Amino acid sequence: MHAARDFRIRTYMLLGVSSAPVLLAFSIYDVIRGQYLFGGIIAAFALAIAANTAYIHRTGRVKIPFAVMNVVGLLTLAWGIQFVGHAAALWAYPLAIVNCFVSERRRARIMMAAGMLLLIPLVLLEAPMDHGVRFALTYPLTCWFSDLAVSILEKLQHQLNEFAIRDPLTGAYNRRCFDFRLDEAIEQSRRDLGAVSLISFDIDHFKAINDQFGHDAGDDVLVHLVRTVRARLRKVDALFRMGGEEFMVLCRGTTPQQAQHLAEALRREVMECRPRPDLPVTISLGVVQYDDRLGRAEGLRRVDQNLYAAKQTGRNTVWPPAESAESELPAA
């Protein structure tokens, strides 16, 4: 969602910078030809695009929704076709293309349908037959190809974004994504939207699994582990592969006790759901609740300490144990 929105905003800025001068030039040309009202409307449209582009550049937000500008543009074209001439319909092509690149997909399709229902009958009535038929055929094709092109671009951008934030082997989020999501969760916790807990875990004796069964088996274990853990997490939780066989679960709105119970459930689930009968897998887990008084770095250091403590106590365990969770959490 965010990637598609950023794509549309960047496209809006690029189109604004490139189209505003062109529209102003055409408005001057229309005024010189004596079409003062139509030229004035085009000039106002160009200035609105320029102002919106400048506002986006300063704030990153859209001041005038493009849907509003699109409606105004379609109505202006309808008026121009009737009172200036059918040549005004040529503006429908760039408007349709811009609409596809800037608007959200559903809204863009609604506006394209509205444009076809409004403009095609007018052009067929006002223009010579051959011009009207050409417009009735080429305008829908322009809309369709523009929509198809943008849909493909957004899909490719989404895939690139996924490649950037996910581990290619397991599909878990990567360390880069963890840094962003943790900062986001911390900001939400500061607005009293729920505590943040971290569960760090890794696979016990993973090197021995690779040595005994081979690296392909090790990869299978990692993939199976991620699938097993994901099935147990809530939608608001997120799983990250921090490197090698080490993982982190970010839990939002979770008390220390809830995080402890979740960690214990994950431990049992992984132990019971083997990737294959001859390959037992266990994990050790460290749990901590983020404390803003200590800071981000200290919270990460303590969850690593708790994971190390779980390994020191014999592995296949959670540290701190559930009954001592509160005493082991970061203190002021």
Automatic annotation (TrEMBL):
GO biological process terms, semicolon-separated: cell adhesion involved in single-species biofilm formation; negative regulation of bacterial-type flagellum-dependent cell motility
Per the record, the domain of life is Bacteria
Q: Which residues form the GGDEF domain?
A: 194-323
Q: Which residues cross the membrane?
A: 12-29, 35-55, 67-93, 108-125
Q: Which UniProt keywords apply?
A: Membrane, Transmembrane, Transmembrane helix
Catalysed reaction(s) here are:
2 GTP = 3',3'-c-di-GMP + 2 diphosphate
GO cellular component terms, A-Z: plasma membrane
Tell me the GO molecular function terms.
Answer: diguanylate cyclase activity
**EC id:** 2.7.7.65
Q: Which Pfam families does this one have?
A: GGDEF
Q: What class of enzyme is it?
A: transferase
Q: Which Gene3D superfamilies match?
A: 3.30.70.270
PANTHER family in the record: DIGUANYLATE CYCLASE DGCM-RELATED, REGULATORY COMPONENTS OF SENSORY TRANSDUCTION SYSTEM
Q: What is this protein called?
A: diguanylate cyclase
Q: Source species, please?
A: Roseospira navarrensis
